[in-house]
Structures are given as C-alpha cells and as structure tokens.
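Researcher: Here's the sequence for the chain we discussed earlier.
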Amino acid sequence: MVVNPELSIVVCVLNEEESIDLFLDAVTPFIEQSVNSYEIVFVNDGSTDRTLEIIKERVADPERHVKLVNLSRNFGKDTALTAGLDYAKGQAVIPMDVDLQDPPDLIPEMVKKWREGADSVIAVRKDRSDDGIVKRKTATAFYKIIGRMSKVDMPQNAGDYRLVDRKVVDVLQKMPEKARFMKGLFAFPGFTKDYVYYSRPARVAGTTKWNYWKLWNFALDGIFSFSTAPLRIWTYAGVCVGFASLAYLTFVIIKTLVFGVDVPGYASLITLILFFSSLNLIGIGVLGEYIGRIFEEVKNRPLYVIEGYYGHEEQDQTVTQPASRVRQKIE
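Model: Thanks. This is the structure I predict for it:
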C-alpha cells in the first residue's frame, strides 16, 4: 500500500453494516479512474453491530486499499471526521457518507478541478426538494442566519462532501477547539475554492442517525462556534429595553401629572415581570453556552480516543490509549 497516496477518502460510520460493501463497490471504480494511488479510511464511531468486523475483513484485502481508525466509543460525527482527517495521508482528502447520498460519480470532476488549481472543491446540492417542508425551511433559515453572523463564507446547501488539498488539512489539524462544527472549520482556511453541483439521492441502506433534536443542537453548535453575535444581540436588546423603559416612565409621569393617579394595573405589572424575567433567562442561557464551551476547552481533554489502527503502517495491532491529536505531534 502506498505510504502517501494521491487521494484519501474518509468515511465515518456508526452501525452501517448494510452499507459498507455497497459503498466500496460503488466508489472504487470512480476513484481508480481518477487517481493512481488512494486509500479509503473508515472511522468507526462506536458501532454496536457488525460494522467493525466487516471493515476489518476488508482491511485484510490489499486490493480494497482500506484502513480503519477505531474509536473507543461514540464521539459524534464531526469528531470522528476530525480523527479521519488526522490519519489520512493523501495529497487530497474527500470526506464522504457511507450511505451513498454523496454521489461517488462526482469524484472525477472534483479531482479534475483540484488538479486545475482549486484547493477546495465543494459539492453543493442543487435543491432540497427531497426534504420535508419543515427541514427545508429550517435549513434555509439556518444558512441565512449563520451567513449573517459568521465571518467565514459557508456555502448554502453544502455538507461535508468536498475535496480538500493537503494544505487545507494541515490548517485544520492546527485548530484545537472541542466543538467541531466542520462546515465552518472547512471554510475557515480560505484558499482557492471551486464547486460541483448535484441532486442528493436516497440512502442505499440503513437509516439516518440524525433527528430534529440533533439537527437543532448542530445548528446551535454552528452559531455559537463561529459567532459572538448572540452576545451582541443581547447587548442591543438591553439598550432597546432600557430606552423603552425610560419612554414608558416618561409617559406614566406625564399621565399622572395631567390626569391624576390611575388604579394600579396588576395584570400588566405581572406580564412585564414575566417578560423581563424571560429575557434575563434567555440572556443567561446564551452566556452559559459560551461559558460552557470555555469550560470544555480549558479541561484540555483529548478530542477522541483511539482503540486501534488497522491497515496503517504505524501499527497493525490494537492499542488502547488516550490518543494525542496528530496536530499535537506536529506542533
């Protein structure tokens, strides 16, 4: 197996036993027509079915060019993707979903644009017509919000499916944050970008691991990881409420002096108390999100733990240890 291949495909898997061979059979022809040397790096993110066993069997077949990073437990997709990027050796790297919703027939075009000088070739969905109306509307709203709040350019309707040059991966390995919003991290380095467009097909097997609650938390991670705008919004809200309070106080004083004292309005008083209490709680929650992220960073725990490497030149036996990030070795 080539030590430093031209292309690495990084695939994060969680209970995808039905999809492994379908993925390999579909993606391999497009890779082989695009590059001379490659590796397919699977990252097992705590699977409980036969996913790990199947990948180990494929690692044993040298014709498959398969490697495996086995995490000690489930760390989440973005952290698993980070592990895959850390251990991928290719001059270019393409993260893909194993369910084939990232069409492998785009790989030749991505590689072509990369060879023409693009440092990142981003796959963008043409539309989201196959999504439900709720998911479609919320996704559109999310991209608009984060586009206004963030200082980096994140293309709308683009996921993790893209080709990134080795120098982009090197920059990503120097980003130590624990909250891994990969769409933003991929966008941060900049460099030369190009795009390919596609319609997203249905899954070939298995079921999605993403529900609306996970998508909601994913959106919050993106906003809080790449913007301080929520804090600034509450500063502006406080100023606006302060001016409104002064205006209302002026109105009450004038009304009292001109028309006399009214009977106290307990209902309106309770409503105002509840309203401003809600504002305080929301503001504390926003502040707590940032403080919580600071807390996670200062603990300085390993981002992930590797149970074992399979198919890698460094070692081909299981090792249980707290894995230091590859970037820590670089630094």
